[in-house]
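Example 3.
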Amino acid sequence: NAGVTQTPKFRVLKTGQSMTLLCAQDMNHEYMYWYRQDPGMGLRLIHYSVGEGTTAKGEVPDGYNVSRLKKQNFLLGLESAAPSQTSVYFCASSWTSDRAGELFFGEGSRLTVL
Amino acid sequence: GQNIDQPTEMTATEGAIVQINCTYQTSGFNGLFWYQQHAGEAPTFLSYNVLDGLEEKGRFSSFLSRSKGYSYLLLKELQMKDSASYLCAAMDSNYQLIWGAGTKLIIKP
């Protein structure tokens, strides 16, 4: 029973490099989210998706892109990494709107940009 | 603007009771959520309140007052494993979660 799986768990990038974080869920959830978590701050929503083929911007979308080609996968891309993107990234999924607040999180991906 | 306030850190003794408060301001309201996050791990869902009153779930209870924009999480019979951060989140009219910065709870023997 995997739940929500994120890869990679750790990554170090140099400024200007690109990378993709992969999130996969096996619960048949409609909604998927990418958050970042920084010390002393609440979780901040980067992008989210309410179904296969759809994406929407969250609170802090600049510098990131996403795709949801399959219902079970949600990819987060950094086109040109910056030190300000050093953070812990969490993917989450949920059922539709009436239960959208009960999120199931992946283990997190710790990204350092030098 | 939308805002969630909760204390940064609290300390309590093993076996005691602790109450973690949360106040919120959101555009519309579709529920108040509490999550637990152990250091280095992902948040996990604890509770959900949408109506005024107390919801009890074992050693944990959560209370909501919509008129006051206020919630608390009550932890009874504290155990060392309860040492964690507790995140308060309110859902706005667009079904988006607004997160507090979390309360780090330290349990002492």
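Chain B touches chain A at residues 4, 30-31, 33, 35, 41-45, 48, 87, 89, 91, 95-102 (CB under 8 Å). Chain B has a mean pLDDT of 96.
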